[in-house]
């Protein structure tokens, strides 16, 4: 039986707002296989970014179980979070590529050095880094710094960083949210092309229905149930 | 919400920044005003001491005997206008009380000036009624220096009018210390100004950072239709209110600080210049306005010269810094006056201030370029950004570290040298002052006849008085004169700064004179030079056999063989230094009492005197130490706050590292290496500046301010301590930032944003 790359069961997450606690996620379950793409849809504040953070261990759920790349994180028992910190860090370092809406690059490093830094942390060969920039069409900008290139070029560099680490799962939080439509389409096209080429699983948080349609599965956080072709 | 509330909302979100600004204004005011108050008091005291006696003449006896009340009566009976002047040391030998007679001074009235009847206000020290001074003199223990009575002559008293047996002489309270008093005060002024500059620098850095963070709010207000000039005006008002609120309590704290340090400082002033520290009313208005002007200037300099300094900052900073350093170094080496030395120090510090952030930036960039590891490369690049972003607090910390290092080296060197010097001066076990009205002659004869002293002990007699020296026909310079006989083994082990082959032997034979460093420097004297010494009307022409160190008063001193003193020489004071050896103490006391025909003499243990002198020494440097420690604490605090604020701007990038798989501990380690790297670099760069400043203090400022110099010494142990302290500051920054990283998610910033996204 094929094991899913990501499996989450009964995830709950609340945030404190003064004396009150606001539930963002409540009993959410989802599963994703290798090579699959999942779109997280929903309005601002619906919990898309929170769910992505839970999937890479940057935040902890109040309850539930996450199984990621064979590692099980059970939050039903109190006091386990501290022990899981190192395991999550190891997974993020080598197997999960995280991409944000912007500011994915270290401003003090050139685009190439950014890619090399990410590859080095993932213990991947540094020789491929320039090739990744070239594959994304920004090879000639390799020595430039983030503030010397456009927003679209920065997101392409961020893509290069993610793929240079040869991940099993990519978590992308509104990766084209700050770009104009045409540039956003170009970056998205590159993302799906490379995802297909490498067979990596992808979770994409977006509120753009057209972008979500390109994913195999869509999870509308307003309704809480995945829609689309069965995994 | 009005415009003020909108602007001030920044500080509601960042209360720590407001607290830092307020604290810096408060501490800067406290430090500067405290030192200023002491300096002003000292200046008043010195000037009062000088003015009172300037140009005055006194009547003295031709036979050199001490003046008494009967002399005063004699002179007044022949119709001469003279006034008694009785100087009485206060108990504990801190400060002087001067007894004057306002009735007698009435005849000075026509001349105006300080002796005009209306000018002498007997409202406390230093002037009291002569009867009160006489009462205080009676209460003095024997061992205190005896009170001295002088009779000051009015301007109309001429030598011809004096009865037989009297003559006129210049009136002075001690050998002239030239402009050294002013130099001493200039030193203090410089210390205060340096502390003020450092705090102004820190203030500016914190304020500028706040302005950068508020830029988005200003832009938003502009879009809402508020003219930028209106925002600027509100900012000035905001700063004015803040400075008023902090400057006033700062002035109050400053007066407390001055009060706290006043006693030690008073002892220094007294010891150095014979000028007691008089109470002076504290000033409020001028210091308050000055401090507010400094605050406004430090914070709002950008409004005054928009963009100007940035052009300099970006172009040719290295060359400019090099130019400053070169000019400053040459000037420090060659400058003829203390003021120019301070100007040179300011120029060198400016050069170093320009160079340091640029140098750290350059070195970090070079290290990044040479590093194959991307993570190290990132760290070096971040360090370069930090050096640029935190340039002002970094430079302030460097200045403070250099200042602390130099002052610590100076004080420690002085401590060591002074201790050794004092040990040599107090080589004898016992010290006995010749009782009032007795001569040392009989005691000297008795001591010379004691076989135990010749075989197992040692002793000498010191006869202290006044004389003057001149070199090849130059005007005579008044000096303190010490006649020594015999020249015992208790003095022959003194370290001399310069000497001929056998200075003590030639001194013993009465063929040479020894001079103190102060006199040698002032008259540019060296070993072998001949000087004319005038003692009680007789001229001695002697070569200089040696120059001895004399840490303390800037007054000139000479040491001659007691056998050279003429019969008519009237000592101001006489004492014996004795190591009794096998001679029992009781027998020694009995013998001296018999020689002087007194029933009770005071024998002082030199160890007690030594500990007393060491206590005075510690008090002397209390002010300096307090200033440097407070400034260092302030600089450390400022860098801590600035570092924290800087990292707040870079917070996202550390979170990015966590998103890329670095564990919390690894991120914290990166943070620590960065902040410690910065503060460590600052400490390393402060070392050469501090060593240079030590040299300036020892070889340039001290001789110009005090008349003596110290050996140059460096203390690597203290360097290690200072570097350790800097690393602790770095750790503090990392700790604060680590807490912030754990506190919650930060918003990602745009890579092109002005705050936090710089490369």
Automatic annotation (TrEMBL), chain A:
Q: Which keywords label this protein? A: ATP-binding, Nucleotide-binding
Every copy of the ABC transporter domain together lies at: 6-230
* One annotated GO molecular function: ATP binding
Supply one GO CC term from the record.
plasma membrane
- Domain of life according to the entry: Bacteria
What InterPro entries does the record tag this protein with? AAA+_ATPase (IPR003593), ABC_transporter-like_ATP-bd (IPR003439), ABC_transporter-like_CS (IPR017871), ABC_transpr_LolD-like (IPR015854), P-loop_NTPase (IPR027417)
Q: Which PROSITE patterns match?
A: ABC_TRANSPORTER_1, ABC_TRANSPORTER_2
Entry-linked Pfam families:
ABC_tran
Q: What PANTHER family does this protein's entry cite?
A: IMPORT ATP-BINDING PROTEIN, TRANSPORTER, PUTATIVE-RELATED
Q: What is this protein called?
A: Putative ABC transport system ATP-binding protein
UniProtKB/TrEMBL annotation, chain B:
Give the membrane topology, semicolon-separated if more than one: Multi-pass membrane protein
The superkingdom of the source organism is Bacteria
**GO CC terms:** plasma membrane
The UniProt keywords, alphabetically, are: Cell membrane, Membrane, Transmembrane, Transmembrane helix
Every ABC3 transporter permease C-terminal domain range:
191-300, 627-742
Q: Which residues cross the membrane?
A: 239-264, 284-305, 317-334, 340-360, 390-411, 626-647, 674-698, 718-737
Q: From the Swiss-Prot or TrEMBL record, state where the protein is found.
A: Cell membrane
Please identify the protein, giving its name as recorded: Putative ABC transport system permease protein
